[in-house]
Design a protein that fits this description.
Layout: H1 3-23, H2 32-42, E1 47-51, E2 58-62, E3 74-80, H3 107-122, E4 131-137, H4 145-151, E5 164-171, E6 180-182, E7 185-188, E8 190-199, E9 203-204, H5 214-232, E10 239-248, E11 254-255, E12 258-267, H6 270-290, E13 294-301, E14 306-308, H7 310-324, E15 329-331, H8 343-346, E16 351-357, H9 382-403
Length: 404
Amino acid sequence: MSLRDDAHELQGELAVLRRALHREPEIGLHLPRTQEKVLAALDGLPLETSTGSSLSSVTAVLRGGAPGARSGPVVLLRGDMDALPVTERTGADYASLIDGAMHACGHDLHTAGLVGAARLLADRRESLAGDVVFMFQPGEEGWDGAGHMVEEGVLDAAGRPVDAAYGLHVSSSSYPTGVFTCRPGTVMAASAGLHVRVVGAGGHGSRPQDALDPIQAACEMVTALQTMVTRRFDVFDPVVVTVGTFHAGTRRNIIPDDAVFEATVRTFSAAAAERAAEVAVRLCQDIATAHGLTAEVDFVPEYPVTVNHAAEYDFLADTVREAFGEERFEPMADPITGSEDFSRVLDRVPGAFVFLGADATGDPETAPTNHSPLAAFDDSVLADGAALLAELAVRRLDRPSKEA
């Protein structure tokens, strides 16, 4: 039987696991119940399993049994495990039992799918021409879990460096259920936080001339940041700035001492990210100076650009088409403006990140998006997600010997 056929034999068990994970979502780097479920699901497989020290990660290594496998290539497959601080409103019979936490981004599917890939590959261990590292990662949603796992050595877990890495992300909208989509080059944006405190001198609202009003200067900064985007950056290498919080004052007739706002900055190349850090900080400081105030400005890089390596993209696209059919692959026209810490892995290892449509409504164009409290994912895609990850590992491990 093919990997895809074997994966569909596992579909029921993977759905049970996914729904158990969905009922008990956990947020951040420490996911003890999730880690426990993953370890139980992997129990009995011929894996070398370890857990993280600074986070509740699980790393499992499958040793290939083919001749020369111990010196063969190493492939890493990744699934993130954490949930979001969202209160679920789907009404599903397996909805979250944890107030204020929900698997609104589909990481429960990623985790169950990676377990499925481990089971599929374990059944084929004797024919694998190298080793496979399974990266079960906490803390993708703003906690840089991938960075923590890289620091703790996940890329060397097999005893030699990883040669290629692949990750998969489901989408509750935008793409038809069961369709894989990907693109070469930049596939997801870099993210950074811009934190600004404008410091003035408070006073009475009736006598602004005797105060230094930080609100006016801060408002000017907010609008100037949008002008900066259109006048200081190449339109073909875009920057997206969104001010999400703005806080100042206590009463309408009091000029406050300070005003604080925070923005997220998205860029699609390393050069634009570096330039945004310089230009945005200087802009805010210069506006403050022009008004006789000061500005404390911090530009905090979060996740770098997620970049699919061209050869690995071609390999992934060919694998989908050959294993699932031409109709199951759709080239992605534009990058996604969200960010991903799998970028930490792809910064160091050739690989690719692919998306899989998992809309549960029947209309992906109007379905609630990832991160919505109404986001609903069709777990019928679990088998094909697991099969693709396993297929990528098998074919990538075989590639060096075939090319030789």
